[in-house]
Design brief:
elongated; single chain; alpha/beta; 3-stranded antiparallel sheet; 34% helix; 7-stranded mixed sheet; 8 helices
C-alpha cells in the first residue's frame, strides 16, 4: 500500500471510495439509527468516511485508527496508530465503521473475532470492502490480484448477524491506459498494479489492455464494492 504517498491526492481521485462512504453511512442510519455513544473507525486515512460520519451520526465519542499518523484533521477522543490486529484496544464501542480497508487484512478470522470482542452487546459493525471482480482487467492481464475472500463465514463464525449486504459493480473510463495507472497511484492502491515496469513490459501491458478493455467510452477499470452491516446479537 502507498497511502502515505497518496495522502494529498486520495480524496480527489478516490471517486468510488467516496460514493461507498456516503452509502455506508446512509444505510447504517436507515437500518440502525443515527445515535451511537462510542464510534470507532478503522483505517481513517484522510478522513473521507470520518467527515460523513460526523455529519450524519449523533455520536458522543469518536475514536480513530490508521497505520499512519492522523491525517483526518479531526481530533478524536483517542487515536490508535497501528495495525488493527496488533493494537491493544481498551474500550468497547457501539458502532465500528470502516471504508475500503478490510481487503488489505490477511487474517480475516482474527479481524472479525477482535472486532466482535470490541463491540458492546447489540452494537453494530458497518463496513465496505471489495469483491472478486475488483480491478478484474488488471488481474486478467497480469495475473495479479488481492485475495478477495468471501467474508460471510468469518463474520458469522465470530458471532455477528448480517443485517444488510449489497454488492455493486462500478466501472470508470479513462482516456488511456497510462491514466488508469496514474489513477491507481494517486489513490494509493498501487499494490494492485504491482509490476516492475520497463518500457517493453508497459507497451505489452498497454497493447493487451487496449485490445481487451477499450470501447467507445474509453478504457475501463472496474471496482466491485461490497457493503456489510452486522450486529452483535
Amino acid at each position: 500500500m502507498n497511502f502515505v504517498k497518496a495522502k494529498d491526492t486520495y480524496r480527489e481521485n478516490a471517486v468510488v471510495q467516496g460514493k461507498m462512504a456516503k452509502k455506508l453511512i446512509k444505510e447504517t442510519v436507515q437500518k440502525c439509527g443515527a445515535g451511537f455513544e462510542n464510534v470507532f473507525e478503522i483505517g481513517a486515512g484522510t478522513g473521507l468516511l470520518s467527515d460523513i460520519a460526523l455529519e450524519k451520526l449523533k455520536c458522543e465519542k469518536l475514536f480513530l485508527n490508521d497505520l499512519t499518523e492522523n491525517y483526518t484533521g479531526i481530533t478524536p477522543v483517542k487515536y490508535y496508530r497501528g495495525d488493527i490486529l496488533e493494537i491493544n484496544i481498551k474500550e468497547k464501542f457501539d458502532l465500528i465503521i470502516s471504508n475500503a480497508v478490510f481487503q488489505w487484512v490477511k487474517d480475516k478470522e482474527g479481524l472479525f473475532n477482535k472486532l466482535f470482542n470490541s463491540i458492546n452487546e447489540g452494537g453494530i459493525l458497518a463496513f465496505t470492502t471489495f469483491g472478486a471482480e475488483n480491478f478484474n482487467q488488471i488481474k486478467d492481464i497480469t495475473g495479479f490480484s488481492l485475495d478477495y475472500t468471501d467474508l460471510t463465514p468469518y463474520i458469522e463464525k465470530a458471532g455477528f448477524k448480517i443485517l444488510y449486504f449489497e454488492e455493486e459493480l462500478e466501472t470508470l473510463y479513462f482516456n488511456d491506459v497510462r491514466n488508469i495507472l496514474e489513477h491507481i497511484k494517486l489513490t494509493g492502491v498501487g499494490a494492485n498494479a504491482n509490476c516492475l515496469w520497463t518500457k517493453h513490459k508497459y507497451e505489452i501491458f498497454k497493447e493487451k489492455y487496449l485490445e481487451k478493455f477499450s470501447d467507445t467510452n474509453g478504457v475501463s477499470l472496474t471496482y466491485h464494492p461490497l457493503y456489510f452491516i452486522c450486529k452483535k446479537a
